[in-house]
Design goal:
Helix content: 25-40%
Radius of gyration: 29 Å
Number of strands: 18
Strand order of the largest sheet: 2-1-10-5-6
Mean pLDDT: 91
Number of helices: 11
Shape: globular
Largest sheet: 5 strands, mixed
Length: 529
């Protein structure tokens, strides 16, 4: 009896999971005809990102780094699995109760979808139709499971009877079990096949990749100056001076990388301007483009973290586009946005400063922007953390005021302006490393965006601070490599680093988390010789 009832409970869980798979499979299929972005799974994930407090975001990035979205999907899948099992048990316990659970979850998904940027009422159709399919599964699966349960109970009851009667009851239980398992199995397999196929279709990047690959960027009218000799140091373990595209950090709120056809992309500049401007991709790349090597960083970067990179960017000065539109004298902010729902409030003066080289970028390290880094166009603003400046897949610049608008992260507790803080990092040795005694080199990178690094000091154990040797800086808008020769002695050691920028400011030893305006403290590594 115990074994039979355990199987029924497993069947109830399977019924709920099957219904959930049916919802997702049908929704993904309908999304093929509505919009890839109308997928309920991705919409709920995006809503979770929007509603998550800053400490949750920081924890996810700290634990999983650029794999935070994969981790989010795993967590989301676990939650959905649990809710599906609850719906299955509830429906078996009382007719309609599991349907109510499924409907409630679907309502949340619909809300998530309709609050996405550029959503329409039609975007709710995949979830609505998927929910109806899921309810049908519960409606038709419940009587099959109950028939199995009743037949199993009848078989388990010990009464004086003939062997033929017992055999008949066992056969009834077997047939009832088979009916339910076939229904659940066929439905689940069909849902998975349809759902996966539709998801591949929705997420397919083949045509999109072909569009990007077919683009040949024009030669810059103003090429980046050659990297000066002595700017790159050959030390094992040190970060490359120029970050390869494949290694460049990615932090954004897009669960699905927007796939934008450059032939349909356009940038709208409006708000507090004399003449609104609309710019197509063809018009953008026909302009006299400039090339600049610039380091950008995420405000979520912890002390010693790797959410920072240095690349050669190709684009057109934002100040020229704003000049074309004619900016109001009373404006002080530009709110940039794209199709993923992200917005950034950038100080107007940072975008119009002729010394800052803020770009509407189309190229990265000699090729069109990678899809995950903003193709076909994004913003690059030296000296500001990405959450207030580096909008990817940008389609709109609204000239406004800080008193009238705010970016995505500001109401979530982050500061309004976001200047990048002077910082430094030890790349070699890494924490926990084991070194050979004798001559070795401690090395790393330091940055003081749009100010420049003046010096880097390293302290080993509790000894005096020693000045490191700086490599030649490309510019004040890029990080700089540094080295310190050291005669390594046997034992356990600790090294820490601090940078001083050209304004005379030296990194504070006070440790602070990334929120609300960037982490502080000295990067410290422990190692053994």
């Amino acid at each position: 009896m115990h074994t039979g009832q355990s199987r029924i409970r497993i069947g109830a869980a399977a019924l709920g999971v099957t219904a959930a798979l049916a919802v997702l499979g049908a929704a993904e299929l309908v999304a093929v005809f509505v919009s890839p972005r109308s997928s309920p799974l991705f919409a709920v994930g995006s809503l979770a990102i929007d509603l998550a407090p800053s400490w949750v975001k920081d924890t996810m990035i700290t634990l999983f780094g650029t794999g935070d979205k994969v981790a989010l999907f795993v967590i989301l899948a676990i939650v959905l699995l649990a809710l599906a099992v609850i719906a299955g048990f509830a429906e078996v316990a009382r007719r309609g109760l599991g349907m109510l659970v499924l409907t409630a979850v679907s309502v949340v998904a619909v809300v998530a979808i309709l609050t996405r940027s550029e959503s329409t009422l039609a975007w709710a159709m995949p979830t609505v139709i998927g929910t109806l399919v899921g309810l049908w599964v519960l409606l038709n699966g419940r009587p099959r499971l109950l028939a199995w349960r009743e037949a199993a109970r009848a078989t388990d009851v010990e009464t004086p009877t003939t062997a033929g009667t017992v055999h008949a009851k066992s056969e009834d239980a077997r047939l009832a079990r088979r009916s339910f398992l076939m229904f659940a199995g066929i439905t689940a397999v069909a849902a998975v096949v349809v759902g996966v196929g539709a998801r591949v279709k929705n997420g397919s990047a083949a045509a999109y990749t072909a569009l990007r690959s077919a683009i040949t960027l024009p030669r810059p009218a103003m090429p980046a100056p050659p990297v000066p000799g002595g700017a790159s140091i050959d030390v094992a373990g040190i970060t490359p001076l120029i970050t390869p595209n494949a290694d460049f950090y990615r932090i954004d709120i897009a669960l699905q990388v927007p796939q934008i056809d450059p032939s349909t992309w356009q940038l709208e500049i409006g708000g507090m301007v004399d003449t609104p401007v609309t710019l197509t991709y063809a018009e953008l790349v026909a302009l006299p483009l400039e090339e600049h090597i610039t380091t950008i960083a995420c405000v979520s970067n912890t002390v010693g973290g790797d959410l920072i990179g240095n690349a050669t960017w190709l684009g057109y000065p934002v100040r020229e586009l704003l000049a074309r539109a004619g900016v109001s004298d009373s404006a002080d902010m530009v709110l940039s946005s794209g199709p993923d729902g992200f917005t950034a409030g950038t100080p107007l003066e940072a975008l119009t400063d002729p010394e800052r080289n803020a770009l509407l970028a189309v190229g990265m390290n000699g090729e069109p922007l990678p899809a995950e880094h903003g193709f076909p166009a994004r913003l690059i603003v030296p000296g500001l953390y990405g959450y207030v400046s580096a909008t990817k897949w940008v389609t709109k610049l609204e000239v406004t005021r800080f008193a009238d608008a705010e970016g995505y992260w500001t109401p979530r507790g982050w500061s309004e302006l976001g200047p990048i803080k002077t910082a430094s990092r030890i790349d070699a040795p890494r924490s926990g490393a084991q070194l050979d005694s004798g001559a070795t080199t401690i090395a790393g990178v330091a940055w003081a965006q749009h100010t420049g690094v003046a010096r880097v000091d390293v302290q080993i154990d509790d000894g005096p601070w020693q000045r490191a040797t700086l490599a030649k800086a490309i510019s004040d808008d890029t990080w700089v490599q540094w080295t310190l020769p050291w005669d390594a002695k046997s034992g356990r050691h600790r090294a820490r680093v601090r940078a001083t920028d050209k304004s005379g400011y030296t990194q504070t030893a006070t440790e602070a988390p990334p929120a609300p305006d960037g982490a502080t403290g000295w990067h410290t590594v422990d190692f053994t010789v």
